[in-house]
Amino acid sequence: MTLTGITEEELWAYITKTAGAETIRKTELWLASPDFNQETYHKLVRVYELMQHTEAESDVAAAKTAFFERVEELPTRRRGFLKYAAVLALILSSYFTINWMLSGYETPLVTFETAFGERDTVNLPDGSVVFLNAASSLSYPESNPRSLYLEGEAFFEVFKDKSKPFTVDTREGITVKALGTSFNVRSYDGEDLVETFLLTGKVEVDGLKGLKEKVYLVPNEQVKYFSLSQTYEKFQNINPNDVLAWREGKLRFTGKQFREVAADLKIRFGISLNFDTEEMAVTRFTGTFDEETPLIEILETLRLSKSFEYEQQGKNTWLIK
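^ that's the sequence the OP posted. Answer follows.
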């Protein structure tokens, strides 16, 4: 791969704070020039940040090297294809991608992304259908559309093919495996929780850190993995409407803590709610709001059942007290 105006080694040295004065000067000039590739730069910064906190530092470093050596640029604006930025985005969260890169694949990645408040339907080449929730990203190697990586939330309707298992990798290295089934996965960056809900069929959930056993789900069961404590809980008799309301553009809360409601509002509106007290953060709410309901109306409706005040502190930040 060739960067214009700067070498790969210079950029990496600058990001990792090992560059000399001349390289720093050259890189800062590049950052302010028309040749600056913002996506590549910020993804590399995230790779470096991850290397400071991961137990698999050598694997991430190797993946970074493989990225520079193997990934060829693709057209910048083609929907469904990311050039090197998409590959780096996947490195950040999943051993699946690290292994994919190091195994010698030259096939490009196909990716679909949604913004805050946006949803999309993805028809995979194998006949499977994916419904992508807001602020989410779905990627897979062009040569294998049944091996996917998800960041965010999606509902999968899997075309049955016993010879080719269908897998979804998420952050924290968790893999959901199915043959022919429909299920929902939620795995947003910044959330402690990775959730898998099964609507039909059967799935296997593997890769739960700190746990040796695999978890199997039957219809209307859900498993929640808590990454900070490296523990999980399995639930039965889940109401599908509570989990899948987002597919119809609805926000549905059934006994949800306010901090969980805040996570849903962030996905819808791209805003962050901060709480003045922990007591307020764990207050529970029940309600349903359609796609057209504005944020202020939702907050005012919630206030009818639980007393609280709110104020905007920045463009996308609100304080709940």
